[in-house]
Amino acid sequence: MGESWATLGVDLHLETGGDAARGGVRKGLTDALREAVRGGRLAPGTRLPSSRSLAVDLGIARNTVADAYADLVAEGWLTARQGSGTRVAERPVAPPVRPAPARRPAGAPTYDLHPGTPDLSSFPRAEWLKAARRALAAAPNAAFGYGDPRGRIELREALAGYLARARGVSADPDRVVITAGFVHGLSILGRVLRARGLRDAAVESYGLDIHWNLLHRAGLRTAPLALDGLGTDVAGLAGGPAKAVLLTPAHQFPIGSPLHPDRRAAVVDWARREGGVILEDDYDGEFRYDRQPVDPTPWELSKSPVRYRKGQVGALQGLDPERVVYMGTASKSLAPGLRLGWIVLPDSLVAEVADAKGPADSCGVFDQLTLAEFIGSGAYDRHVRRMRLRYRHRRDELVAALAERAPRIGVTGLSAGLHVVLRLPPGLDERTVVQAAHWQGLAVQGVGAYRHSDAKVETWGGLVVGYGTPSDSAWAGTLEALLQVLSAVGDIEEPRPV
Amino acid sequence: MGESWATLGVDLHLETGGDAARGGVRKGLTDALREAVRGGRLAPGTRLPSSRSLAVDLGIARNTVADAYADLVAEGWLTARQGSGTRVAERPVAPPVRPAPARRPAGAPTYDLHPGTPDLSSFPRAEWLKAARRALAAAPNAAFGYGDPRGRIELREALAGYLARARGVSADPDRVVITAGFVHGLSILGRVLRARGLRDAAVESYGLDIHWNLLHRAGLRTAPLALDGLGTDVAGLAGGPAKAVLLTPAHQFPIGSPLHPDRRAAVVDWARREGGVILEDDYDGEFRYDRQPVDPTPWELSKSPVRYRKGQVGALQGLDPERVVYMGTASKSLAPGLRLGWIVLPDSLVAEVADAKGPADSCGVFDQLTLAEFIGSGAYDRHVRRMRLRYRHRRDELVAALAERAPRIGVTGLSAGLHVVLRLPPGLDERTVVQAAHWQGLAVQGVGAYRHSDAKVETWGGLVVGYGTPSDSAWAGTLEALLQVLSAVGDIEEPRPV
């Protein structure tokens, strides 16, 4: 029976097996460490000494310690992480029995109003297959090889035509790059901008943390711009460290307001003046319902409304194609499962982006060729029109039902897109409502989940309601579930006159 | 200046004049449409919305639209035909001059023997489309959404079965992750290993620099292991800084030899002893032609051959699924354009890899479902068998022709895969041969292009000949071109007896 003390990092008393055989020492050390964790002598989160120093302390081979650590990591008692060494796991319950992961997340909601996904039951399967057949028949053999990092020319041509016509984008096929969706494109652009020496990117006060994290991973800091009734306040860019800004000009996500025309002009002026780059996330530009949107922003609901024409919703990129990187996606107009997005680049960025992407970091050629055929045949326009009508109908039903049954709820951001923002009455905490919805099997997200931690905005309680998510057959039930939750919490929270 | 959207028939972004007077509106609309046609945003032949629907969309009088259309027809920008409505004229005025992009790289070779691409003309289009139709019909709606970061369960199940059967891989669907090809998978693994604290990865003396660069980009240094007649010398791993090693055990790329059974065992022992991870690149495991490969390695050509059984070519992963990460791809068995690959992970890495990948960094769901159907229906096996016969036939023709017409050339690495290595006679510089081939319109690569800059190997001149690359119809001509180049340079360089 030998005893030793390890003193680096943590005082650790181990009883190692006396067997001199290596297997015996390793087993003894592993058992002793496991017992120390199980018994609580080594608390969760405790950092263990390095295998080298523990080996010196114990007078045994370093590999023996490393093996013991590895065994315990594999068993779940310890964790190994870059920069923080080996630590006692936070919940070191023995996981030898591993339950088969459920095929769908446990407790999947009965009703789903999470934003960000279109109605998947409406995917045009028959039309898509027709386009796939034509595309496959027409494809040259070379299409099946490693190709242009920008993607297939057929799709780049089809997109250049479509985006010019439908979104006012100044595009030519040479400056279009196909990606596996917006996230893929943003990740490439983050790397390219970092490689150009950028360290800071401005973002909006509201957005998706997955996007901000992508920029962080690329080595860029993000700082949010203020947001008010005119949209994101781009004046905050002037003279600042950020030389790139990520915006959703047509339909701020998730707040819903378009960027005011003055600010569209101002951000382009800033980019020209200071050599900045604007990343335009046009995630749902296809879905605009009202010619002259007049719905108030959440701030305006409680103030005198700002009066301006909000009709300008073409791509910001059209104002200056050399300063704006336009990014679109098929995830909202068709389906996220396609994993297809596109970037329209300034000339000066094309080579760098193509290089960062490379011919092997791409998406399947069949889907590219099929989408090209789908656009070229007019099927894309027809699908978008059909879905636009359907989503607008849902929006109208939602707004009418809310006005009738939950009149204290303000509705904003409703002139476009697949979601609205509900502003909750003062005193009604959004987490309470989200939780109440969860209990009723209704998935809905609080607006706080989209707020940047450094956001410079007055906070308020709200829900982001993705009315595009349910299937047609589920829509009525989902709407009813939402109304019941809102009227229930409204009844509870509303201060009653005595 | 106001702006408007027309949505009936075609999505059209117009800037109309802000003057409220009818003449002003008419002029604004006319100017905007003319600009859209002149600038190419409205392509020749595009059908415009009816004057009635555009008027509704723009909130102006129908006659104003009709007048604007009439003006533009009179000017020649539009055409009006009964039954086909108003369209953009076929040849308006010349759009801004933009040089037409070249559709194919300048100087594409007439004959292509670059390795790494299968015969693209043999892609099974009809079978693939059949599988796509069945897959699309069977797909649940949820398949079109953001999904499991590991990929579709249908494909993970199909691959787990196939890999166990065909490659001896110990796989279950929970440990399979679908990627957009090998490069995508390696890039994810590099990031995961770096996040675990690894700083060094061992690689082979020969390989692809794109793979090494991916590891560098993830923050890992690469150092090559020595290579000899038994394959890569894994003894160099012992006690070294690298805790991960990237290997091509079944068919060293590009040298062609399999890893000797003793070394397969030794590298697994190393991984167990030192907590190492083996990354197994099984890029062309489907294509093995000879049960007991006996072809000499390039080193053996000039020495007494090493005698051992080389028959063992199943996946290394089968020896220890918790120490080996198995990586395969559809790029050689089907086509690189699919952008489909797969990783079979140790349990301990699944969560980290899925987390690093994320649900949006993936490949299209249709190709995933189609490949699952393709494998499940037996079409994949049939295709691989058909191609194996075809490639073996080419290999046999190549070897026979070289023996007859370029007898001083040694041929190695011929028992598997889609390429062989030709060892040039001493005194014949491979760059000379590659250049001579280039002049003849034949693309072929020197073996030096695949040598790691720190490779610990005796260097020698050789060519890597990808005989799988040409189409069937191009094969005979390509082989003849190679033979002519080799006999020509052989004649020039061969020392003649005086």
Structural class call of chain A reads alpha/beta
Mean pLDDT of chain A: 84
**Coarse morphology of chain A:** globular
Please provide the count of β strands of chain A. Answer: 19
Cα gyration radius of chain A (Å): 28 Å
Oligomer, anyone? homodimer
Query: How much β-strand is present in the residues of chain A?
Result: 5-15%
Put simply, the count of helices of chain A is 13
Distance between the termini of chain A: 78 Å
- Largest beta-sheet details of chain A: 5 strands, mixed
Largest interface: A-B, 84 and 77 residues
Q: Helicity of chain A, in percent?
A: 25-40%
Strand order of the largest sheet of chain A: 6-14-13-12-11
What ranges of chain A have pLDDT less than 50 throughout 5 or more consecutive residues? 1-13, 15-22, 92-106, 301-312, 492-498
Can you lay out the helices and strands and say which pair or pack?
Two copies of one chain form a homodimer.
Chain A: E1 2-6, E2 12-16, H1 22-38, H2 51-58, H3 62-75, E3 78-81, E4 85-88, E5 111-112, H4 125-138, H5 153-167, E6 176-179, H6 182-195, E7 200-203, H7 209-217, E8 221-224, E9 227-228, E10 231-232, E11 244-247, H8 261-274, E12 277-281, E13 324-329, E14 341-344, H9 347-357, H10 365-376, H11 379-405, E15 410-412, E16 420-423, H12 430-439, E17 442-443, E18 445-446, E19 462-465, H13 472-493
Parallel strand pairs in A: 5-17, 7-8, 11-12, 12-13
Antiparallel strand pairs in A: 1-2, 3-4, 6-14, 9-10, 13-14, 15-16, 16-19, 18-19
